[in-house]
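Predicting holo structure, adenosine-5-diphosphoribose bound.
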Amino acid sequence: VTTKIRAAVLHAINEPLVIEELELDDPRPDEVLVQIKAAGLCHSDLHYINGSLSRPLPTVPGHEAAGVVLACGSAVKSVRPGDHVVPLFVPQCGSCESCLSGRTNLCRYFGVPESEPRIFRAGEPVGRSSTLGTFATHALANERSLVKVRSDAPFNRIFYCGCGVTTGVGAAVFDAKVQPGSSVIVFGIGGIGLNVLQGARLAGASTIVAVDTNSEREAMARKFGATRFFNPATCDGDVAAALLALTEGGADYSFECIGNTAVVEQAFNACHPLWGRCTVVGVTPNGKMSSFNPQSFLMGRSISGSIFGGAKGRRDIPRMVDWYMDGIINIDDLVTHRIKLDQINEGFDMMRSGESIRAVIEF
Ligand code: APR
Ligand code: ZN
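Done. Tokens:
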């Protein structure tokens, strides 16, 4: 027995996604069948479409969503039919060495290739992103890749907690642990950077500099907490030197939210030489390198990275949803476009052109 689904399928790099009818297998004992209600278009999906990250094709992309449980395998304990859920691209099994270590949010199941196909097209296997594949009317998720959330929160907002919101807010609050009164520079004011801005504001940073080559992002940046806006295109000299001057000696924290190896270097060199901490949030292309002067590390600058904002999905997403419902974080203004599954390619065009912050597919 299978469920017939409609899904967007990536058949070849740099080609439009194709909307097709596919078959989704029935839940195994540890799996849950989810009806997807809202799915976000994230920059990481675009990385797979344009080939800067790669995976076997054909595949159903999409990893940022919210939906309702339709059916559960016999061993599933934490959710039941009717529950509202957010799928997790970083699982949280809760019992592996990583989950128990208290040192990482990356469960040992993160990024592990799937042993068996779960989606089929005329009997042939089709892959899926992040063991989810949310650009579809339905998805199967292992219980460890799902969290129950309150049922009064709108799907077309909380889908974003499944990736962008948590990644950005968490990078500032959970990973970098921005301190009250500190200074912060955020490079790249897109769907992720705006969330780092609001995370920095939430943490009480007093100077927040937004850096983007697109000056049209200034108004949004200020709405989400930036106290200054800097466009590197307007500066002839070294971007890091200009920002060191602008922050009177370097920021306490900097964040790279683009995925550009040259900007990672700027972000590192723009933070305070004795204690500045640079956090890499953007996903750089496979194989590309950044370089640093190791003497900077001796002096005290540091650099680290953040996946999914250091959050553990089953623990932290319900809290993110509460923060949204309590007005502590703003999601409404980030969801700039509401589209249907058939418009998914136009949605990615808007991402490429910078017209959208977040487009959401509503089912
Ligand atoms: N310097 C400054 N800003 C830049 C530069 C640059 N060299 N290049 C691009 N930008 C700006 C763009 O103008 C845009 O506003 O970076 C922003 C990137 O925003 P989005 O395209 O919306 O990307 P986003 O969804 O925020 O993702 C950023 O994080 O999770 C990862 O995979 C994701 O690597 C991607 C990154
Ligand atoms: Zn685990």
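The chain has eleven helices and 18 strands.
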